[in-house]
Specification:
The protein is of the alpha+beta class. Helix content is about 35%, strand content about 25%. It folds into two domains: about 5-145, Fructose-1,6-Bisphosphatase, subunit A, domain 1 (Fructose-1,6-Bisphosphatase, Chain A, domain 1, 2-Layer Sandwich), CATH 3.30.540.10; about 155-265, D-Maltodextrin-Binding Protein, domain 2 (3-Layer(aba) Sandwich), CATH 3.40.190.
Length: about 260
């Protein structure tokens, strides 16, 4: 199904407004919120819940027939929904940073039609940076078009990455990290998957790899990075799977080909 530029802009504008509302909640609770542990080393705050609620309320008002999946309430089943449209929301990506006062976190909102991403928005409310993209229309940062860096030399690249929770020294991710450490120019672990993908999109990072994320972590960022010209693949040679994100995003296809053997362990 094809969507007009006008239709996509309606969805994108709604996603940006929803992200703005969620971001206001995060700033309101910053340094004040209570913290719970919903799983092993997996934190959740009152800010997560309240941000998601205002986002859901807004999107449900604008698009009452659309399905909604948020990280903090996944009781609704996409399979049981009668709508082909699904909003996938992370109301606070980077909760550990948020809890510790590290001001690198984001709101992530994406709209999918069946399995196809239509629009994606990632908002950094502290820096007031809003990244967004619509299918086939490029990616923007605060309204200005952005592009991936164009880096194709691994020894000059800066990569960001995500480690899974409960890491042990025998985890294959340690081997991946050491392989990359020996070959790339620099490595950073920043704590927000959504922002990591946006940093690849705007050229602040040349690549990003992750193996243990959830769909709401990457649903918007994938589209933003792709629309900015980045190459994204499951480095095991499998098809990318939103349900089990396992991938590397790189500024260029040449750079991606150089890092895939290092990650495929």
């Amino acid at each position: 199904m094809e969507f007009s530029q006008n239709e996509l802009e309606i969805y994108s504008a709604a996603s940006r407004e929803a992200a703005r509302r969620g971001g206001q909640i995060l700033l309101k609770w910053l340094g004040k919120t209570t913290t719970q542990e919903k799983g092993f080393r997996d934190l959740v705050t009152q800010a997560d819940y309240e941000s998601q609620q205002v986002i859901q309320d807004f999107l449900k008002c604008e698009f009452p027939n659309h399905h909604f999946i948020g990280e903090e309430s996944t009781s609704e089943s996409h399979e049981s929904s009668q709508s082909d449209f699904c909003w996938i929301v992370d109301p606070l990506d980077g909760t550990t940073n948020y809890v510790h006062g590290l001001r690198s976190f984001a709101v992530s909102i994406a709209l999918y039609h069946h399995q196809t991403p239509l629009v994606g928005t990632v908002l950094d409310p502290v820096l007031e940076e809003c990244y967004w993209a619509s299918q086939g229309l490029g990616a923007k940062l605060n309204g200005e078009l952005i592009r991936a860096s164009g880096c194709n030399e691994i020894d000059k690249s800066l990569f960001v990455f995500s480690f899974p929770r409960g890491m042990t020294r025998t985890n294959p991710e340690v081997i991946r990290f050491l392989n990359m450490l020996e070959n790339v120019g620099s490595i950073r672990r920043l704590g927000s998957a959504a922002l990591n993908l946006c940093y690849v999109a705007c050229g602040r990072a040349d690549g990003y790899w992750a193996t243990s994320l959830a769909k709401w972590d990457v649903a918007a960022g994938w589209l933003i990075a792709r629309e900015a010209g980045a190459s994204i693949e499951d480095f095991r040679g499998h098809q990318l799977d939103l349900e089990k994100p396992f991938f590397c995003a790189a500024a260029t296809s040449d750079l991606l080909e150089q890092v895939k053997p290092l990650l495929n362990v």
